[in-house]
Structures are given as C-alpha cells and as structure tokens.
Design brief:
The protein has about 725 residues and is α/β, with parallel strands linked by helices. It is built from 23 helices and 20 strands. It has a 10-stranded mixed beta sheet with strand order 7-8-9-10-11-12-13-14-16-15, with helices on both faces. Strands 1, 2, 3, 4, 5 and 6 form a 6-stranded parallel beta sheet that branches.
Amino acid sequence: MDTWDLSSPLISLWINRFYIYLGFAFSISLWICVQIVIKKQDRNIQENSFPKTTQDLMRNGYVSLQKKDIFVPGVKIFYGSQTGTAKGFATVLAEAVVSLDLPVAIINLKEYDPDDCLIEEVTGKHVCVFLVATYTDGRPTESAEWFCSWLEDASRDFRFGKTYLKGMRYAVFGLGNSAYASHFNKVGKNVDKWLWMLGAHRVVSRGEGDCDVVKSKHGSIEADFRAWKAMFISQLQALQKGERKKSCGGHCKKGKCKSQQHGSEEREEGSLEQDELHHRDTEEEEPSEDSSEEEFGGEDQQSVNSIVDVEDLGKIMDHMKKEKREKEQQEAKTSLLVNMGRNEDGEGRAMITPALREALTKQGYQLIGSHSGVKLCRWTKSMLRGRGGCYKHTFYGIESHRCMETTPSLACANKCVFCWRHHTNPVGTAWRWKMDQPEMILKEAIENHQNMIKQFKGVPGVKAERFEEGMAVKHCALSLVGEPIMYPEINSFLKLLHQRRISSFLVTNAQFPAEIRNLKPVTQLYVSVDASTKESLKKIDRPLFKDFWQRFLDSLKALAAKQQRTVYRLTLVKAWNVDELQAYAQLVSLGNPDFIEVKGVTYCGESSASSLTMAHVPWHEEVVQFVLELVDLIPDYEIACEHEHSNCLLIAHKKFKIGSEWWTWIDYNRFQELIQEYEDSGGSKTFSAKDYMARTPHWALFGASERGFDPKDTRHQRKNKSKAISGC
C-alpha cells in the first residue's frame, strides 16, 4: 500500500502562490471599495437630513454665518431737492425699505462727493436710489448741481470707461413738470443715462413724477411716486431673496423688460454683462424704456437667448427704425389730441382733477364746472365790516364789498415766484380741456359769491346796508388765479357781465398777444409787468413759452392799441427787479398805458414751489422811492394815488389830470351806457378811457394824510401787528 505524500499539495500551493496572493489582494480591494461607497452614501443621506448651519455646528463646533449669501446689504437713497419734495419722498421710501429689514441711508447730494465715494457703491453692493428734481430751464437743483456735473463729465471721459460703475445697482425717480415739455424731468433722465453709460445696472425702470396734476399719469406727483415706489419695493424684495433677475440694461422695447424673464431663458451673468457692454459701445444715446406700469407686459419679443446672424443685422436695424417711426407718429398723434383738448374718446378732459379739486377747495375756492372758480377776497370782508376797501377802491372807486373775484380759467402759462396760489392750479400754453359755457360759469359764480356773502349775516361788525349791497355784484375782478384770457369764450363772458351791468377788471400775464388784440372792450385791462428784462422775467415769472420775451413785448404793443383804460401792474421783488428803472421806462413807452400800479410783493407764506421769503418784500418807503425815481424817467406821468395799507402806489398819465385835479376814478354808469352803445352798433361806435373817467377824492391822492384810507371807514390795526396778506 502506497503511503500518503503530504508534500505534493504543499508543493502545488507553493508553485501557485502568486495566484493565491492576487486573489487575496483583489478581495481586500473589493471590500475596501464597498466600504467607501457605503460610507459615502450614508454621508449624503446625513447631509440631506440636516440644514447647513447644523452640519457646520456638528463638523466644526460653530455656525459659519460668514458663508451666508447676502444679496442686498442695504439701500442708499440720494436726493437733490429745491423745495423739499424729493427729500420728503426719500423719507417715505426709506420707511418702506426699513419694513423689509434692510439697512437704509438717506444722503443729500449736496453733501456727497462722487469723485471719492461713488466707486465705493460698486464694491458695497448697495442698491442706490436717486430722487432728483428738475428746476428752471431743465437744470438740476442747487443741491444736486455738482453731482450731476461730475457724473456728466465722467460719462464722457474715456479715462473712466464704460465699466467704471460695473456692478453698481441703481434706480432713478425724477421730479418735474410736464408743462415745461422741452425739459420735462430732464435731470432724472440724464442721471439715469449717465449712470448707465458708466456701466451701472438699473434695477427698475425710471419713474417720472409730474407736478402738473392735469397731465400727471396718476393725478399728482405724490401718486406718481407711490406707483413707482410700489414697483421698486417689489423688485427689491426679489433681489433680497436672491432671485436672479437681470438688471435692466436700458434697452427694453415695447414695455417688455427682458430682465423679467426667468428659468431656462436666463443666461449667465457674465454673458449678460458682455451683451450690455456691447450695447453701450454701439449706442451712446439715452436708454429707451416705457413707463413703469408697462415694464412687465407688452408685445412678445425675440428671446434674449437668440443669436443674431451678422447678415440679418441690417434687417433688424430696419425693423427697429420702423418701430421708432411708428412710436414717434403715435406720440405726435397723441400730442395733437391733447392740444386740441380732446382725449381718445373725443371728449374734452376736465381741467379740475379730483386731486386739484381737493387742494383748491381746502384753500377756500368755490369751484365751478370743470375749469372755473370764485373766492371771497379779504377786502370784500373788510369793507362789509366798515374797515376799509382795497387799493382799487382808492385808485378807481370800486366798492370792494360789491366786487366778485373770479376766473373762467384756472390754468396759467406762468409759474410766478410770488403767486399767492402756491401753484396748485394747472399750467398750459393753450386751451386743451373740456370747455364750459359762459352762461353757466357766470350764473354759478354769482350764486357762489352770494352764498359766501350770506355767511356774514349777523357777524359782529358787519354793516347791514353793506351786507344788502354786497348781495348785488357790481364789479368783477378777473384776477383770481390763472389766465382768464385763455378761456376761448372770454368775449362772450365779458358781454354777459356787461349785460348785467357788472364792470370788468381783467388781468393778463402778457403771454397771449393775439388774444389781447381780439379782446372786446373791458372796463379796465391789466397787463402784469413783473420784470423789465428777459433774464429777470424768466427768473420771476418762469414762463412756459420758449418765445416768452417776444410774446411779452407783443402783448405790450397790443395793449397800446386799446382805446379803453389800460394798466401796467408792476410787482416789486426786492433784490430781483427793483434796480431796472431805465428798462421799465422803455417798456412804458412801448405800451403807453393809462396807469401804472406799483406794488410791493405780498409774502403768502412758505411754498414748495417758490423760494420767496419775507426778505424779498420791500418796505412801503422803498416802493415810494422806486416810484419817485421811475416817474423822473417818464415825463408824461405823475404819481396820482397811494394805498399804504396794500403797499401800493398809482402812476397816472397826465391826460387824467384836468387842471390841478386827478380823474382816475371810473364813472361806472357811464361805462355801461358806452358799452351798450358799442354792442348795439356792432362794435362800430367806439369810446375811449377819458369818456368814463371820474374825479378822484382828495383822501385817495398821493401825499394826503389818509394815505389812501377812506375816512368813511374805521381803520383796524391787528394786535400782533403782523404784515397783512392781500387777497387782491
């Protein structure tokens, strides 16, 4: 029997040991790989089960707050304001931003140095909001003047380049008045353009507030701001959440902002920036955009992801030009409709908007129809109580308690710095509103005036006989507010007044020469001559017409052709127009008025629309000195009357001085007879100012001890001796 040889298996294993080692190594490697995969899967499950802050806490022992993404670190609100409106809006906007738990800073542009600080807004990643107003001639306000000047220079300086403000996010809201169409919101548009040219990104469409309540898109500049603010806050919330909305590059078309497209159509930020830079290189003009309400709608446009072939570029440019022409034609058509006083439905737009009605009603106006108003003058109240009449009573013999102050047109073509209506009335250069009939206007004006007189029945001090007389209107001062001569039916309105034996005192701002020439006879026609040079007139009256100076001169020439009584009305504003004596004398020779009223400006309190202060009000002695010097330059005139209480003097042509007596008063009954004869003859039987003049009483003359106060009345001195505010 053979013995078992144990050496054979061992020898076999030894011979095949390499394969055995290899098997062991493979098994171990496979086990290690399986363990790694299992651990990795467990880690992924664990990470998905806990928030990032918990993971940091478990892994590091602390929460890595510094790694949290902050998309909007804060908001900076810059304002440039002349009257305080923009500053007020900045405060309101800041409150809305704070409600989003965002830091906010309000900065006056006057105290901001863009040369040192503006570049910091790029690295700071704040959203910068600019609230800027447009002032006279489309210039920035004094507080924003340096900022705008620097920004304009930088946008045109190649050393800054088109990426200087790359990364800065901004929004602009402009404050302006569309009545000044040639430079409406010019500053806001420029700031928007200059920031865009320097590479900044607009986060929301530019807002445009309009002080003209008639043209304002939302009824007032405050409503315009609220609408824009709501859109800005909505966009800010989206940015705060980190929603990737492309900043508006300034080339939105047809009201559809490409920045509002999300999802699969959203491109990488670098690609967007490259496209914007290319657009800035090829287009230097102001970025186009529609109004804020239309930003998220409009016609469908080509996707932002579309690739344009160079060969198709010409067709695209032709298409864009065609769209631009169509838009301009549509705007011209809309403008024509506005100028004709018609809307798209063919009906006229009411001049008095709800916001305007509320503002004027608070000031004591009784509004009539859609564009007229009446208000009780303080001198009417004074004379009812036997406390004296206005300067017209002293100069021309009107009975102040029987005078109705009204206007058939609340609109005006000027925004005078001394306007006592604080510019709440609309402005315009032509009639473009719904028109009420003159019969209705006069009927309601008299009724409203009588209702206001009735309120004085039983008031202590009111004289019974004057109360009864006051119920019968004898005079009408068409000088309440606005430009009465703008009313297309002004001649019919005057005819109705005269038929009721009511005298007419019409005031115009010398911007409508054709209407003055076509005006039928009035008892007395006034032209406001607020300055004697083009520069000072522009500064004081702030007219809407570009050719305001030529219109002013033509109006004075038209006045010279009138046969009835004519008056220059000079309002002296200290430091603005009191040193132009020689120029005033030249204007007198141009219009040859019968009378010249010289009155110190009346300060009516602080107004957001004017920089006038008490420092601009001349003392009565200063007005007297001005008149004495002016009379020396116009030999055909002398000082006739004085009304110290109104800070007013009357210069009269010497033809009204018969012998040694002045005849500046008016024979109202005789005027009514003459105007009736004129109407009966169809206008062929004319008459002159000397045909209805009356002798001036001694107490009304310059130099009299009464200083123009009617001795029949009792002068009442206010206890606080504050300066009276005239309503006439």
